[in-house]
Task: inverse folding
């Protein structure tokens, strides 16, 4: 512990072999030892008592979101196709907006992202665990992990904490050897593959726009507009969502993060496009 | 169930002490406690000291559960002996830190030590140089919330006396003499006596001085001026 | 045993399983071995709120952190007027925490010891980015028994730029230009949004540059404003100024004491 003698160096080879062995083996399920409440206290009840509305405004966990993702095919050869992931950027603690600039698209790998809905801290923490697993997988297997496998690992990990009050609603989206894929994963341990998907408090509003305008084949411009449009409308109807719209376009070759767009400005943009005056006109 | 219920349903302490008042003066600290341990509103045990001499530099006074404090005395004694093994005398700062961790750890097990502790002492900055020693008062609540102060009143005194003691302190600040500090404490006890039904008129003033070390106080009595009762009663 | 037909057997089995699960749930919530003393103990509130507010602003080459020094009991009774909520962890990392003071102290201790170990292991000071992630993790490790704190970590990052990281009680992390936490957060943030974020300024208007002097005056203003309207904020402003390449400066400024 305190220093090395020369004898210790002779063990190096043995240690190297051991390290290699460890590297080849499948890493164990993330086994964190979280500080626990004394036996018999249910974390869910405990949180409800101390961190719900009765707690001070700043003591509530950050949450609230609209996130969406969809897969589309290119309409013309000039387009790239792939996946559009669009999210808002609001985090609220109760009625207080504790942040208006959260990045809710978290990187998992070069070609994969996870979105964040539900408890912000839960998503951030567990996404990193998944990212670590994926990186290790890539190093070990010398091939990048599939979206399916990554999301499965994510879901399994969350399942291990089921009923303990985690709150995660995430979409793992990415391009792998099987093509563009989106998996929705949540803290109940649920996991399912979808083409068009939206999660969060504003998801229903987003679905309304998305289902209306979605086509399996779109140009890149159309697809990006659709993502923006759905998020914009969701933020206007859902008070838990707002801020800017972050958009990520995963194409077969690259991952493009578009600059954030203020949803207030988007509103005027779409109003212009529809040829409609933004003032309410009951006669029309 | 709402948040207020659980405060009421808490496992209540049984035999309790009330206020502790402590004040720092030029070369040390004076600590005043009354000498009663109550069982609810009943004055269950009289002539009980609520101050504990740890060593020549440290004195601890407590408010809250008497049994828990007895347990703490054992723990503290062990800690002192542990330091002795390394030929060290535990100082007030170190003990304050240790007790903070202890109380916080117990809180995390949802099994709190039901005490408000006042660690009074003289911190030796240099070994065997009394000139550089500084007075120290540290407070720890049962949840492990700890802070250092120049003057303190705990228990009901926190509501009654904190400002009164602070005003006295601000008049002289660091230059307060021991006699003046003790006078402030006596006056403060008189005030608790009028308004705190579990406070007693028998009390003791312990002190920790840079030169004299810990001097535990003798039992004293105060009657107070009850003529103010005439102006403060609605029950005739 | 009533029937040997498959369907009833399955129905019975699922029913039994459901009942078993229910029983397990109940017994987990109220184990029989638990004495009334233990049940009482669980209802005890391990948290208290000592009030106060903290705030941090970062600029091009500086970060300033401020908090008030009041500590209250039940938001009403002032326990002390000089409780420190800011910890200078090293030359370029400053932690400031509001909330339950026991947790504030614990968090400080955890980070201090981790930083100490880092110095021992790597023979250099930790950078603020690393420490920010470390803090986030440590907050999350208490996910099921959280720290009752709103933490802000500020400092000078590896590129000499000011950095402010804001957290929720369980470690949701975000790097921001400015942040506040504690009782007066909903008062300070709109003020800073207006003055630093310029969210209320139309386009085309001149936006004053955020210099150190301006940041300090804004900080003073926000605390003086909060002390006017928030009960658990007051007494003194504890101001810590970190500028790239300069030692950390600590100041105490008076504030309303009522």
Result:
């Amino acid at each position: 512990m305190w220093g090395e003698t020369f004898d210790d160096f002779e063990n190096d080879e043995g240690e190297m072999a051991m390290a290699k062995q460890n590297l080849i083996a499948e890493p164990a399920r993330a086994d964190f030892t979280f500080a626990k409440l004394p036996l018999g206290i249910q974390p869910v009840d405990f949180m409800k008592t101390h961190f719900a509305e009765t707690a001070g405004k700043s003591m509530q966990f950050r949450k609230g979101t609209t996130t969406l993702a969809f897969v589309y095919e290119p309409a013309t050869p000039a387009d790239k196709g792939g996946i559009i992931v669009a999210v808002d950027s609001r985090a609220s603690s109760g009625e207080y907006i504790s942040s208006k600039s959260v990045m809710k698209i978290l990187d998992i790998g070069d070609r994969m992202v996870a979105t964040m809905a539900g408890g912000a801290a839960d998503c951030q923490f567990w996404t990193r665990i998944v990212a670590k697993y994926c990186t290790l997988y890539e190093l070990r297997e010398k091939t990048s992990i599939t979206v399916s496998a990554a999301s499965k690992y994510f879901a399994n990990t969350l399942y291990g904490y089921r009923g303990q009050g985690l709150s995660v609603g995430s979409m793992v989206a990415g391009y792998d050897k099987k093509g563009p894929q989106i998996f929705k994963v949540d803290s109940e341990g649920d996991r399912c593959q979808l083409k068009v998907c939206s999660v969060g408090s504003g998801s229903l509003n987003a679905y309304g726009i998305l289902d209306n305008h979605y086509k399996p084949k779109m140009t890149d411009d159309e697809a990006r507009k659709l993502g923006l449009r759905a998020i914009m409308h969701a933020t206007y109807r859902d008070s838990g969502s707002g801020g800017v719209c972050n958009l990520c376009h995963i194409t077969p070759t690259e991952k493009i993060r578009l600059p954030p767009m203020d949803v207030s400005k988007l509103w005027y943009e779409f109003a212009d496009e529809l040829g409609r005056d933004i003032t309410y006109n009951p006669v029309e | 169930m709402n948040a207020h219920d659980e405060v009421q349903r808490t496992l209540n302490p049984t035999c309790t002490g009330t206020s502790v008042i402590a004040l720092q003066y030029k070369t040390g600290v004076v600590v005043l406690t009354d000498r009663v341990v109550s069982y609810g509103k009943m004055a269950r045990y009289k002539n009980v000291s609520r101050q504990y001499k740890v060593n020549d530099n440290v004195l601890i006074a407590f408010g809250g559960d008497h049994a828990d404090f007895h347990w703490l005395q054992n723990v503290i004694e062990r800690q002192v002996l542990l330091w002795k093994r390394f030929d060290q005398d535990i100082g007030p700062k170190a003990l304050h830190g240790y007790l903070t961790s202890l109380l916080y750890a117990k809180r995390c097990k949802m099994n709190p030590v039901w005490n408000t502790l006042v660690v009074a002492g003289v911190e030796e900055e240099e070994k065997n140089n009394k000139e550089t020693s500084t007075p120290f008062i540290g407070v720890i609540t049962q949840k492990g919330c700890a802070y250092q102060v120049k003057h303190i009143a705990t228990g009901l005194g926190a509501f009654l006396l904190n400002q009164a003691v602070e005003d006295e302190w601000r008049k002289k600040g660091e230059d307060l003499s021991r006699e003046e500090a003790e006078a402030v404490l006596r006056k403060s006890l008189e005030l608790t006596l009028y308004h705190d039904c579990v406070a007693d008129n028998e009390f003791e003033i312990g002190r920790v001085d840079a030169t004299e070390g810990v001097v535990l106080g003798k039992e004293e009595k105060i009657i107070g001026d009850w003529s103010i009762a005439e102006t403060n009663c609605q029950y005739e | 045993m009533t029937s040997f037909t498959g369907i009833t057997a399955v129905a019975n089995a699922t029913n039994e399983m459901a009942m078993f699960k229910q029983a397990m749930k109940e017994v987990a919530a109220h184990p029989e071995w638990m004495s009334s003393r233990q049940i009482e103990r669980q209802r005890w509130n391990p948290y208290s709120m000592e009030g106060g507010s903290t705030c941090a602003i970062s600029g091009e080459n500086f970060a300033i952190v401020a908090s008030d020094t009041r500590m209250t009991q039940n938001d009403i009774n002032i326990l002390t007027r000089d409780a420190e909520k800011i910890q200078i962890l090293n030359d370029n990392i400053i932690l400031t925490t509001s909330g339950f003071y026991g947790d504030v102290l614990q968090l400080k201790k955890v980070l201090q010891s981790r930083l100490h170990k880092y110095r021992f292991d790597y023979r250099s000071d930790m950078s603020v980015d690393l420490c920010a992630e470390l803090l986030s993790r440590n907050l999350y490790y208490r996910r099921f028994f959280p720290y009752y704190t709103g933490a802000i970590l500020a400092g000078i990052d590896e590129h000499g730029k000011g950095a402010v990281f804001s957290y929720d009680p369980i470690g949701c992390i975000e790097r921001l230009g400015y942040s506040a936490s504690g009782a007066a957060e909903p008062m300070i943030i709109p003020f800073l949004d207006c003055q630093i974020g310029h969210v209320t300024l139309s386009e085309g208007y001149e936006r004053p540059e955020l210099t150190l002097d301006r940041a300090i005056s804004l900080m003073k203003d926000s605390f003086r404003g909060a002390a006017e309207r928030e009960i658990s904020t007051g007494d003194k402003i504890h101001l810590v100024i970190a500028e790239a390449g300069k030692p950390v400066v600590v100041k105490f400024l008076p504030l309303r004491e009522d």
Notes: Chain B touches chain A at residues 1-3, 6, 108-111 (CB under 8 Å). The longest strand of chain B covers residues 115-123.
